[in-house]
Write a structure and sequence with these properties.
Length: 327
């Protein structure tokens, strides 16, 4: 069939608009099937537990299951690279953290993605306190004694962490930089494995996520010297803050957030952001997050714009710390 030039020009705008119209129609029916939520670490760790808590409530809001898929490797960057390459239709999202979406470029010069440009932010999930923890046989029993002991013996000490680029690694580097320590750094494939090594006495100390430390501290298998947050944490109310204990410079909280691939339609992102927001407003969900030591951000610090700003500021914060440690 032949078309006149006039007929072609009449049809062309509609043909060009078809893909956009299709995406809008898809967004209006979203979600029509389960959504995959990628967790960049193994099952059972704090990021995995947090993801499953919010996924349960978000599934009810969206009317479709959020199916958690654990994709570990390379400090969480394997999962983030996979998300970057996923179809931007809202059916694949990821929970990331300050390692995968802020510090990774400084650790990996050939990183496959740009945290501040290759993702669509959904929202901040929670903030996590970090504890200066030590094995129960470690001589110091408080932070001041730890500082004195570590400075005198740091070349004989080792610090455990959950792999290069993990939050335990980052916060541990910050602690060491503040105190001028150069211990042997011992990587493990998960925070749980590093904590178990500390319990067994194979690791002297680490900067542990409170979710990994609470039960062990309460059970007496490890000791907590200070918590690096502005206020004491209800999960460990007897542990002083680093400021109270005399080290105000070591005040840091990890964060976890949800991301989608760049190009995900705005209506779809808005549905995901709304579902996350409703989960974080739910009292049962809030209690479950608090029980593992997480802090729920205020509404103004949760959404898409707040997360985009957080990623940029955290990249600027951690890059010089990491470069200094590498130098």
């Amino acid at each position: 069939m032949k078309f006149s030039r006039r007929r072609f020009l009449h049809l062309a705008p509609g043909a060009a608009a078809f893909p956009m119209g299709s995406r809008i129609a898809s967004a209006q029916t979203y979600p029509a099937r389960p959504v995959t939520l990628i967790v960049p670490f193994g099952a059972g760790g704090p990021t995995d537990v947090m993801a499953r808590i919010v996924a349960e409530h978000m599934s009810r809001t969206l009317g479709q299951r959020l199916v958690v898929e654990n994709v570990a490797g390379a400090g969480g960057t394997t999962a983030a690279a996979r998300l970057m390459r996923a179809n931007p239709d809202g059916y694949t999202i990821q929970i990331g953290h300050m390692g995968t979406h802020a510090a990774a470029p400084a650790f990996y010069p050939n990183l496959a993605y740009r945290p501040d440009a290759d993702f669509a932010p959904i929202g901040v999930v929670a903030l996590t306190a970090y504890v200066i923890a030590a094995n129960k046989s470690f001589p110091p029993d408080d932070l001041n004694a730890f500082i004195a002991y570590a400075k005198a013996n740091h070349q004989r000490l080792n610090m455990g962490h959950a792999g290069v680029g993990s939050n335990t690694h980052l916060t541990g580097l910050l602690l060491n930089a503040i105190l001028g320590l150069k211990p042997v750094l011992v990587p493990f494939n998960s925070a749980a494995a590093a904590t178990n090594a500390m319990i067994a006495g194979h690791v002297d100390y680490m900067s542990a996520a409170i979710a990994d430390a609470v039960q062990q501290v309460k059970g007496g298998t490890i000791k907590a010297l200070a918590i690096a947050s502005p206020e004491r944490n209800p999960a460990l109310p007897d542990v002083p803050t680093s400021r109270e204990a005399g080290l105000p410079e070591f005040e840091v909280r990890g964060w976890n957030a949800l991301f989608a691939p760049k190009g995900t339609p705005t209506p779809v992102l808005d549905q995901l952001t709304n579902a996350l927001d409703r989960a974080l407003d739910d009292e049962t969900t809030r209690k479950r997050l608090r029980d593992i030591g997480s802090d729920i951000p205020e509404k103004a610090r949760r959404g898409q714009d707040a997360l985009a700003a957080l990623v940029k500021s955290e990249m600027a914060r951690w890059t010089p710390i990491i470069k200094g440690a590498q130098g």
